[in-house]
Amino acid sequence: MRVVAVLIVAAGLAAGATPLADSAAASHRAASLSAENAAFASWSPDGKQIAFVYLSSRKRYRIVRMSSNPARAVHTVLAAKGYCCRQLEWAADGRILVNPDVGLKSVRVQGGGKPKRLFFAGSGCDNSYGCQTYGFILSPNRKYAAAAFGPGQAPNDWQQIGLVKLAPGRKPVVLPPPHTADSYDTPLTFSPDGRQLIFSGFSSSFPPVFSPPTLQAIRLAGGDPVPLTQSGIPGASRVPTDVTHVQWSPDGSWVAYVEEDDTAGNWKLEVVPTTGASTPRELASCAGNFDFSWSPTSKLVTYQCSRLMTVRPDGTHLTNLLKGRRHLLAGSAQWSPDGSRLLFVAGPFSFAYHVWTVRPNGRDLTRRS
Question: Are the beta carbons of 255 and 239 closer than 8 angstroms?
Answer without folding.
Answer: yes
